[in-house]
Amino acid sequence: MSGQSPDSATKPLLGIGSCLAGNAVRYNGDSKSANQHVRALSEHFDTRPFCPEMGIGLGVPRPPIRLVGDVDTVRIVDVASHEHDYTDKIQAFGQQVIDSAPRMCGYILVKGSPSCGYERVKRYADDGRLMGSDQSGVFTAALHAIDPLLPLEDDGRLNDPGLRESFVTRAITYHQWKTLRESGLSAQKLIAFYTRHKYLVMAHHVPSYKALGRMLADAGSQPLEELADTFIATLMNALQQRATRRSHSNALFHISGYLKKRITDAQRQRLATLIEDYRTGKVPLIVPITLLKHHFADTPDAYIDQQVFLDPYHDSLGLRNQL
Ligand code: SF4
User: Fold this and answer.
1) What DSSP string runs through 163-196?
2) What is the mean pLDDT of residues 144-152?
3) CA of residue 251 to ligand 1 center, whole Å
4) Pocket residues for ligand 1 (CB within 6 Å)?
5) Taking each helix axis from N to C terminus, what angle separates 224-240 and 206-217, rounded to the nearest 10 degrees?
6) 63 vs 9 pLDDT, higher one
7) How far is CA 229 from the centre of its chain?
8) DSSP string covering 202-231, please?
9) 4 — pLDDT class (breaks 50, 70, 90)
10) Which of 232, 246, 284, 322 is the least crowded, having the fewest Cβ atoms under 10 Å away?
11) Which atom of ligand 1 is nearest to the CA of 20?
12) What mean pLDDT is predicted for residues 130-152?
């Protein structure tokens, strides 16, 4: 099966806010304690810490900075005078980070930071009045502008089981994509990659599942690099759609169709009941998935065995116990 082992020689690489990684780099010389989910991810991924404010030469301790301006002209400046503008330097540091870590498949940001916040960062007027909590940090916005497919989350949002599962799924998928690209692209490899991810995409977004199938059926008609870019953008955007109990159940029923002649009527009925129990919220996703995996362990199917959907990440992360 396709799950990621924590002992894999090529663990996926996440960027992480340096203060969250335990380094005393905040403006006042503190670090920020990582919650249990950040700590768990740090065991399953390689992590590389970055601090944009230190990266542009601001020391510790340093005067605090904040976002100031109108929504479409926001700058990051010092709190005391608003006269020192660090926007361009922090944006340039974003490019430096992307260039220095080409294997990076996701980034754990820092809630509320004017540099590293994911969303709802405070924005002030020139006179110091709070105008709203409606921004991403400047470094975050730079990362997204440079690589819109890079999965981003902050430590606060990772407390949400659905967002956490989505982040891990997308990061591992992006890691696998980067690994494929490094090995050299071909139309065959592209099709094999999609074949493995089919039911995962179906569980998130059926229109993308259909669009990707059409795109690859026509694989010979456009330059490979162009096709690859459109393909991975469509796939990653599909995975960004939040999977629901209904959409997961749809994928589970499709996969259970492959067991048709391999299990008894009673076993089939039990499986259908469990999928329905999952759909209606009585049991978590791990329950029907586990039964499916037991059946396919007894009667292996080469096509289903390669499906990432059944094993997208290491079980010990426990992500499907809470979905
Ligand atoms: S939030 Fe970002 S800029 Fe601030 S200390 Fe942490 S890593 Fe550095």
Assistant:
1) HHHHHHHHHHHHHHHHHHHHT---HHHHHHHHHH
2) 98
3) 40
4) 17-19, 25-26, 51-53, 110, 113, 115-116
5) 170
6) 63
7) 18
8) HHH-HHHHHHHHHHHHTGGGS-HHHHHHHH
9) very low
10) 246
11) 6
12) 98
